[in-house]
Write a structure and sequence with these properties.
Elements (H helix, E strand, L loop, with lengths): L1 H19 L1 E5 L5 E6 L3 E2 L4 E3 L5 E6 L8 H11 L4 E5 L4 E6 L5 E9 L2 E9 L4 H8 L3 E2 L2
Antiparallel strand pairs: 1-2, 2-10, 3-4, 4-5, 5-9, 6-7, 7-8, 8-9
């Protein structure tokens, strides 16, 4: 019990510190948003990269085919066979493992009205906690 309480306090502190110096990255349609560190370079396609290029993220919301988290839960494991599901509910879906490019990744999906928001962050080894904290900020923007 003490360890879980300590973990939650530590996580809250990390998230609060993270939020202080962030910028918002949205997908091209503007219906999905994620917070990345202020030092990251954001692109126009819902993408962003860390200054050292060791982490990158893409935020999307497919216009066709994916309208519910349940559909992502069925489809994503087939696309990312080296990922393991870490969260799965009606309001969020998350996997971690290895991306199609071979780099470690965290993949997350959340509802966005009649669509879903999806984010995938890839990183180099040793940045798992940062990747998880970043992708956890994914939300519907409209």
């Amino acid at each position: 019990m003490r360890i879980s309480g300590l973990f939650l306090c530590l996580l809250a502190l990390v998230l609060a510190a993270f939020a202080a110096g962030t910028k918002t990255v949205t997908n091209p349609e503007g219906n999905c948003a994620i917070s990345v560190p202020a030092s990251w370079t954001a692109g126009t396609l819902g993408n962003a990269d860390s200054p050292d290029k060791k982490m990158s993220i893409i935020v999307s919301s497919p216009k066709r085919g994916l309208t519910a988290i349940a559909q992502v839960q069925q489809m994503a494991p087939g696309i990312y066979p080296d990922d393991k599901v870490t969260k799965s509910s009606a309001t969020e879906f998350e996997m971690e493992g290895k991306s199609t490019s071979g780099k470690p990744n965290v993949y997350r999906a959340v509802p966005a009205g009649a669509r879903v928001c999806i984010a995938e962050i890839t990183y180099e080894n040793g940045a798992t906690a940062d990747a998880r904290a970043t992708v956890a900020t994914l939300k519907a923007a409209k």
